[in-house]
Structures are given as structure tokens and as C-alpha cells.
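Reviewer has doubts. Consider these C-alpha cells.
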Amino acid sequence: MDHTEAIRQSAVEKYLLDELGPEDREAFEGHFFTCEECAADLRMTALLMEQFKQELARPRISSVAAARPGWSAAFQAFFRPAFAVPVLALLLVVVGFQNLVVFPQLKQKTALNSQPQVLPSVSLVGGGSRAAEIRTLTIAPQRPFLLFVDIPTDTSFTGYQCLLYGPSGKLLWQIPLSSEQAANTVTIQVPSDSAQAGVNTLVVQGKSPNGSEVVLVKYRFLLQMH
């Protein structure tokens, strides 16, 4: 899934509402880990949904509202002062935050993504499970970087996936790969907020026809942020 297709399908909203099918969900997960704009939109939309849930869960003081022909009780309740004022205030805060913070940041990131730029990178090729060397990458805060990875392919696998674990062993993200993508050296663009300072481990798995997953190789690298 590319960025245009994600926007066309309203993938961010459908992902959070669990309305994507298994294949579309996996394709979108593979996309937003390499797309800063979709990742930022996903985080912001999730935050707004959580804020609305918390706001709507608060008890309200009942008030008398004039009935309107054809309006449901729930729709009339929305316009009662005890309900409408906090919600509208929250909406104003959200709109102001988006206009002052979110949209300028997205505009800046979009402008950067539309221009040629040199990204810091680390090659993990040849640095597999038995390699004693831990390769080092130094990046600036909020700076994406590139990982170059070789996938040990085998015709018995139907596909592959890469999983990144932070220094604490927590899974940070995973991205699926097709057999065609794995045939050559894979380049993964990693947003700076999708990795942690310290020794990270990239695990490459092969997917068997029966659905099981086999660990093929582990790559380790030291990420420093200055």
C-alpha cells in the first residue's frame, strides 16, 4: 500500500476502528512504519479518539431541552448545555492544536519528503546472528534513518517479515516483505521515533505455508542520538 492508496481508503480511520480486512491491515502496517505523515496522522487520530471517549464517559448534569420533531433523544442531548459546552470546547482546542502545531509540522515533513536528502544509514548485510561486531549508527533527534538488510530466502517460505526490538526487548514495530522484495537487499526507512537509543535487534522471520514463523537471522546495531 502506498500513501495515495492509504488516503483514498481512509486507512488511518479504518485501522483504528478495526474496519480493515487482514490483508489491508497488514499492508497498511507495512506502509505507516515507513511514512512519517501517516504515522503522525495515526498517532493524532488515536489521541483524539481517546480524548473524546474520556469526555463522553464523564457524567453529565441533566437539563431540560426543547423537543424537536424528528430528532432522536441522543441527538437532542448533544445540544444540551451540560453536554455541548465541554465537547465544543474540546473541539476548539483540537482545531487550534491542529492549525498551530500538527498541520505546520506535516507541511514541513511533506516538503522535506518531496526534496532529495541524504539520510544516515547502517548496513546490516553480513552482520547476522553469529557476527560479533555490533554496527553503530549516530543520528540527530527526530531524524529518520535507513537500514540495509539481506534476507536469507528459501523457496519453502511464502513471505517474510522484519521485527525490530528495542534495548529492553520490547517489540517496536514489524514490517511484512514479499518474496519478490526479499530477493534483493532490502532498504527500510525507519522514523526516528520508531527506534530507541541503545542496542536494537532486527529479527528476520520466514513465513511457512502452514502459518508458522521461523527465525532466520538476527541483526544487532547500536543507535546513538545526539
